[in-house]
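hi support,

uploading two proteins for the ticket. first:
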Amino acid sequence: QASLLKNDETKALTPALLQKELNNLLKFNPDIAEAHYLSYLNSLRVQDVFSSTHSLLHYFDRLILTGAESKSNGDEGYGRSLRYAALNLAALHCRFGHYQQAELALQEAIRIAQESNDHVCLQHCLSWLYILEQKIFDSCVLLEHSVNKSLHFGLP
């Protein structure tokens, strides 16, 4: 279902039916991280900010609690999950227009990624920072500021 939601949403179950199936699955085993992630994707599909945030946080909680993240990613353990949870939370808030919350979550992701020397996560954060800045400020102002800084430092 996650693959269908990503590649061809029309072939996936309807949002209501998919959520009903996920709720049944989670009733018997609430620690299935993948089910929480699919619930997150399904909630995004119907623009439900509360449910999508809830499911996203439960997804990362389950990754940390089950230790699945540390098994697949060496000795980093739950640190990787925490920084990507903050990054995904920033993306979620940005998607729903909560720019101040997105900025706070992005600052947290940057702080954790810097402490861990995770350059890949930092690059993702930089991309989201650019997107967030485009949403908050007029792009002409950013371009003007960038040109002025380049002139100041003698850059072409």
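and the second one:
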Amino acid sequence: LQMLEQQVVGGEQAQNKDLQEKHKRRKKYADERRLQLLAALQEANEDSSERALLNVYDSIQEEVRAKSKMLEKVQEKLQAAETEIKDLQLEFGLEKMDYLSTIRRQERDLMLCQQLLDQVQSLVRRDCNYSNLEKIRRESVWDEESGCWKIPEPVIQKTHLP
């Protein structure tokens, strides 16, 4: 039963020694490569600052070089951060100016519309419901779906004398 199981587990090539050796070599190579990558990552993550903290230097020149490299890296990071801050401030300033110009333009358009309404209101017949702007504003409803105002239809109210 064990012999049959050994033949079945692993498929047709279970007894192939060359294939087993090839598999072991690939696995060994993959493990070595993984260890190399882990070591490279650890080395990249560990700054020379750890070495500077441990004071493991052969000479003062080596310590100066290590601390200089560390200082250069910090200065590069600082420079990059300052550049990013300036870019963001510039972008914010441009957006702010754009918003302000949009607001000013909309205020001018609103003033034009208000002046037009004031001029035209005197021309509207008194028996029309559009003669009273405040009443129209009260009766108007904002429609969220269409994104516009629903204004009451104009109606002329005829008064009949008895």
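thanks. also noticed: The first helix runs from residue 2 to 8.
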